[in-house]
Amino acid sequence: MGKKIVSACFAGINCRYDQRHNRISRIQELVEKGEAVPVCPEVMGGLPTPRNPAEIVGGDGEDVLDGKARVIDNQGNDVTEAFIRGAYEALKIAQSVGAKEAILKEKSPSCGSCMIYDGQFRGVKKAGQGVTAALLRRHGIRVVSEETMENEN
Q1: Residue 18: strand, helix, or coil
Q2: What is the mean pLDDT of each run of 10 residues along the chain (153 residues)?
Q3: Rounded to whole angstroms, what are the CA distances from 130 to 26, 35, 51?
Q4: Threshold 0.90, pTM exceeds
Q5: What is the spatial distance between Cα 113 and Cα 148, in angstroms, rounded to a whole number?
Q6: Which of 8, 68, 115, 143 could lock onto 13 through a cystine, CB 3.0 to 4.6 A?
């Protein structure tokens, strides 16, 4: 079994937009054993922690990669380029460690694998994937969420 990449917030790293984490003990243990590599595409794309929450407007991560949608923060700033840059950095790391799977944070505009917020900052979720999830899938990496992982084991 090759290494996985995981959302860094799962490893207890305070990299979320609100400078918190989403630590999951099992995932943190994978990182500590060297079986998983933590990534935070938003930070790797150049965004600070903390940062304004952002949502995809006009589609999902596939649409962002295709230039048909944008990532906008709650102050109206276009942060699309940082999200794309971070996605490519995460892909580079995944490829460098031979990762075939990524366990990413659901509902994130970067990492969401099935669900993201609808782009109107009302807390409403919709089907779709984040920018990094879409890019990893385009390169043959299986993307699952923490919920999927919990259900599989």
Answers
A1: coil
A2: 91 97 96 98 98 98 98 98 98 98 97 97 97 98 84 50
A3: 23, 24, 17
A4: yes
A5: 10
A6: 8
